[in-house]
Amino acid sequence: MDYETPQFYRVMQYAARADRDVVEMVSGSPDWDPPEAVRDGLSAYAEADADEFQYAPSRGLRGLRAAIAARHGVDEARVVVTNGAGEANHLAMTGGLERFDGGEILLPDPVYPYYAGRANFLGAETTFVPVESDGRLDPAAVRAAASSETAVVVANSPNNPTGAVYGEDAMAAFVAVAEENDALLVSDEVYSQFDYSGRFSSALAVESPNVVATNAFSKSMAVTGFRVGYAVFPPTDGPTGDLVERATTRHMLTNVSGSRPAQYAVQQAMERTDTAYYEAARERLQQRIGRFCEALDEAGATYTRPDGGFYVLARFPDFPGSFENAERLVDEAGVAGMPGAAFGEARADDLRFSLTTPRVETAAERLVEYFG
Ligand SMILES: Cc1ncc(COP(=O)(O)O)c(C=O)c1O
Known about the structure:
This protein has helices at 8-17, 36-45, 62-72, 84-99, 113-121, 139-145, 168-180, 243-255, 260-272, 275-298, 323-333, 360-371; strands at residues 23-24, 79-82, 104-109, 125-130, 150-156, 184-188, 211-216, 229-232, 302-303, 311-315, 335-336, 338-339, 351-354. It is an alpha/beta fold. It is globular. The relative contact order is 0.19. Bound molecules: pyridoxal-5'-phosphate (PLP). Pyridoxal-5'-phosphate (PLP) binds next to helix 4. Residues 28, 84-86, 112, 156, 160, 188, 190, 216, 218, 224, 229 line the site of pyridoxal-5'-phosphate. One of its GO terms (molecular function) is transaminase activity. Residues 21-367 form the Aminotransferase class I/classII large domain.
């Protein structure tokens, strides 16, 4: 699999060029509104003084970092605001490779392809650990794959693409594997607001110098275009306390700073958005998951109902998840999903459908008609 060329656009563009109406279930961009306070924050920003149109502090707006630190119960000095979870993952993985011995990154299979692409261009060796049949990564399998060569272990919960959510025990076990092998656990928690199981546990619940947690407001506040994310690095007074400084320097050299108005609006929304906003998003998605899974049953597909996130991985009889079949599905059924082959080998027979569309009902009907 060529992870260095992002494949999402390939299927999206194919779907956009199709001669027929297509329900686009490829991209992970929410189709719902951001919290009202995001819009208010942006509007208010238009009237701000000229100096607030200049560079933000490189690590992020003070108030935003304080709010993030309070959310996680950590010292503000550990927080770097980044351009989305993407940059946070980049900084964390780079730091892990530099700081720890070994040149290997352990990744789950199926994998969020950008981890693998990033590992490739950072010149790291990649070792993939296949998930279990229910889509979960078994900590014992991660332990068996890890060695002194391992510098970084990546975990993602709730998971893209499997929908798995790891509880406290599994997260503690991933952290332990990192510690035992003198490596860094990078815990990507960008879907943390989309846990339907009640099981989600942040890696930060485990006190460890071997953990970086990454996150963003991209999905939780439906603002993927804002590019506001963050990483929480290990305590600055511990053995890996320099990781935050290294990341800050890299972030500064690459970006100078993140977008100030976007950070301001997100900060406002953190302060003013109540839990009902997040509950409504979860409820909407759970209804979509329910309807989509009903259709998958009718269509004779094999799948695991996601415990979190907003993707469903499904396998249809005699229809492997190749790029060719994804394109066939666009042309013949009018539904665009992402080929499982884009996520590695373990789920190459599956297709991944993103439920970030108001047209789940139409997609469901079309899939039942096509495969049923
Ligand atoms: C697992 C995972 N991590 C990171 C990202 C990127 O997040 P951001 O848009 O905040 O960079 C995505 C986006 O789809 C994702 O699925």
